[in-house]
From TrEMBL:
Belongs to the transthyretin family. 5-hydroxyisourate hydrolase subfamily. Its EC number is 3.5.2.17. This is 5-hydroxyisourate hydrolase. Residues 6-114 form the Transthyretin/hydroxyisourate hydrolase domain. Catalyzes the hydrolysis of 5-hydroxyisourate (HIU) to 2-oxo-4-hydroxy-4-carboxy-5-ureidoimidazoline (OHCU). Homotetramer. The lineage of its organism: Bacteria, Pseudomonadati, Pseudomonadota, Alphaproteobacteria, Acetobacterales. Substrate binds at H9, R46, Y112.
Length: 115
């Protein structure tokens, strides 16, 4: 079985740069919601540590919460209409590394399962 872990990466598509300084929270949703990790993205748009390391991985539903409006407002930009972007993901044991990128602007976002 492949070890499972979770990481993220945020890109500011409005400016074409990594989203440095975006607040991120990582929650386990089952059986009760619990905040597992939080941080702020670095100059590369990544967190300095994985959100969930393989030795702490438990299959289930999780949420990544990205404070998109705070990020854009802190840069003096119109925060648009997005507030906190919430990605609810189901993670399975043995599926390998889960990388959850967020590409965002003040008005839109997209995501995918990265590597």
């Amino acid at each position: 079985m492949k070890p499972s872990a979770v990481s993220t990466h945020v890109l500011d598509t409005a400016s074409g740069i990594p989203a440095e300084g975006m607040p991120v929270e990582f929650w386990r949703m089952e059986p009760e919601p619990a905040l597992l990790a939080q941080g702020t993205t670095n100059a590369d748009g990544r967190l300095d540590a994985p959100l969930l390391a393989p030795d702490h991985f438990v299959p289930g539903r999780y949420e990544l919460r990205f404070d998109v409006s705070a990020y854009f407002a802190a840069r003096g930009n119109d925060p648009g209409y997005l507030g906190t972007v919430v990605l609810n993901v189901g993670l399975k044991e043995g599926e390998g590394h889960y990388h959850v990128p967020l590409l965002c602007s003040p008005w839109s976002y997209s995501t995918y399962r990265g590597s």
